[in-house]
Amino acid sequence: MTKLERNQIDFSTFMLYRLAEHWGKSVPDTYRILDKANAIDGYLVPCYDMLHTLGSEYLVNDLTDYVREQGICI
């Protein structure tokens, strides 16, 4: 595993926990929502270089919007 891949995993995990807290859901439920929206493989990982420089509050709001744009209720 490269350092970049490890950083992407750490970042995705960090955001998973932040979203779970913000949404008031369990981590497994939050993961299922993100997976259904393809938010991890389709957004967080490919856009890591840009996203990891942003604040977590902005990212929580951005990911919440992203999931809703995919037609998924939170």
In brief:
This protein has 74 residues and is mainly α. It has helices at residues 3-23, 27-36, 40-44, 48-51, 56-69. Helix 1 (3-23) crosses helix 2 and helix 1 (3-23) crosses helix 5.
Describe what you observe in this structure.
- This protein has 74 residues and is mainly alpha-helical.
- The protein contains 5 helices and no strands.
- Helix 1 crosses helix 2 and helix 1 crosses helix 5.
- It is globular and about 35 Å long.
The largest β sheet comes out as: none
Number of strands: 0
Mean pLDDT metric: 95
Poorly predicted spans: none
Question: What is the terminal-to-terminal distance?
Answer: 33 Å
Global outline: globular
Order of helices and strands: HHHHH
- Helical residue percent band: over 70%
Number of DSSP helical runs:
5
Strand content: under 5%
**From the alpha-carbon coordinates, what is the Rg to the nearest angstrom?**
12 Å
Structural class: mainly alpha
Keywords:
globular; 5 helices; mainly alpha
Q: Topology, please?
A:
Blueprint lengths: L2 H21 L3 H10 L3 H5 L3 H4 L4 H14 L5
